[in-house]
Amino acid sequence: VSTLQQITACNEIYSAITQARAEGKTVGLVPTMGALHEGHLSLVRASTESCDFTAVTIFVNPTQFAPSEDLQQYPSTLQQDITALAEHQVDLVFTPNKHDIYPAGFSTYIDPPEVALPLEGKQRPTHFRGVATVVLKLFHLLPADIAFFGQKDYQQSLVIQQMVRDLDVPIEIRVCPIVREADGLALSSRNVYLSSSERQQALSLSASLEQASQLVTAGERNADIIREKIRQMLLTGGVDEIEYISLADPETLGEVEQLSTPVMALIAARIGKTRLIDNRRIG
Ligand code: AMP
Fold it and tell me: Closest Cα to residue 44, out of 74, 86, 5, 11?
């Protein structure tokens, strides 16, 4: 049984992690933006199952939001989050302030790898620059053995894995499966924005990915046909603000034409004011 320690100061966090490692413990790190749900908690469980010491970070990173995005509205449930983390045997929660992460004069950013360019990178041109910068800072502040990320943000997981390889960051990246509601909706902190009719529409994201998977199982190999089926299913479900439908190489995220090997199907769409993403490995 462990008790949850909360640290807010950037100048205290490094020694807390290095102390755990000096005690011979393996350290797992779960970076989040809070408003925790079962998706986040699945990463916590993956960490507590394979590491002796688990640290979770809660930081709504301003540099990964564009001025037009939902930074100001982003949900925050800090007290509930801390209760959930304590119940899940988390050892440490790091809740820095934005002025400590980005003090006056901060001006160094990571130029993210090529895999950041398509899909999310096209729709949100400065997003991965902010993600890569804050994640590298967290890896420095909390030098863990293993960091846990969700497949929910599949492109993000590729960006971070490439950054870690390219910059020789001594940390292992583990990517964990998407946690879904019973009806298929991928858990997201942003789901709280959805009205009940919007939530109904949102179901067509996971449903269309499921349908695409079935098409491939039935023998379809033409990517254009599958993308079009996904589009039709989204439109039928009332989702008409589609940002992208991608059938991409799982490593490069380059669009494929023929499905000879497994691909990633990735979707981004707006439902009212809420932007949702989902993905699934197919074939
Ligand atoms: P966020 O707080 O949205 O930045 O997410 C923090 C981490 O949780 C990221 O690695 C996400 O990919 C992961 N995550 C978010 N939603 C889910 C989900 N439904 N299933 C699994 N992991 C998730």
Answer: 86
